[in-house]
Amino acid sequence: MSGAGLPGGAGLSEITGSLWGGDGIRVRLTSRPQWWQPGMPEALVELLAEFSYKPRWRFSLRSMTEAGRPGHSFESRWLLLVNTWVEDVTQPGVWSAGVFTIPVPWGDDEAPRDYWLHWLRDQIWQGPERHEVDEWFTVGGERPFDPHAKPGS
């Protein structure tokens, strides 16, 4: 039997060979991330299993109910969780963890990998990276777009 390894215990792999002397039996083994659940968009799950971004940033999917947002199910069945590790803008040298939750669009369960590739990049830019830009953007010592400022303050 020959086959590809399962990187980090995630992703999909195929092993081809014979079983009990049979001819050319092909077995597809799936090893999915621990957070995998039935019904998740398979192309997105595969992409996230192979994907890396910044050191200590982690990406996973959760059901709306599991994430404690069952009332938001009209948006999506799934949430993309982005766990970040960033330097504190008010305390240089101090790093902290953050979590961003992004609804996964309805009806795209069968979308191809290329769709999810672009969607994921857009969500990183529009969510956590925009937040970081807004935190670090200063003019004359002021943060005009501070995402932590209360409205009207």
What does this entry look like structurally?
The protein is an alpha+beta fold and 153 residues long. The chain folds into two domains: 1-31, no CATH class; 35-136, no CATH class. 22% of the residues lie in helices and 24% in strands. The chain has helices at 42-50, 113-136; strands at 2-3, 12-16, 26-30, 58-63, 78-87, 95-103. The strands form two sheets. A three-stranded antiparallel sheet has the order 1-2-3, with no helix packed on it. A three-stranded antiparallel sheet has the order 4-5-6, covered by helices on one side. A hairpin with a 7-residue loop joins strand 5 (78-87) and strand 6. The longest helix is centred in the last third of the chain and has 24 residues, at 113-136. It is elongated, with a radius of gyration of 20 Å. The protein starts with a strand and ends in a 17-residue tail after the last helix. The model is unreliable at 1-22 (pLDDT under 50).
- The number of E-state strands comes to 6
β-strand amount: 15-25%
Shape: elongated
Estimated structural class:
alpha+beta
Number of helices: 2
Strand order in space, largest sheet:
1-2-3
Oligomer: single chain
Described by strand count, sense and barrel closure, the largest sheet is: 3 strands, antiparallel
Uncertain spans:
1-22
Cα-atom radius of gyration? 20 Å
Q: Whole-Å distance between the termini?
A: 66 Å
- What is the H-and-E element order? EEEHEEEH
Integer average pLDDT: 78
Q: Helical percent range?
A: 10-25%
Number of domains: 2
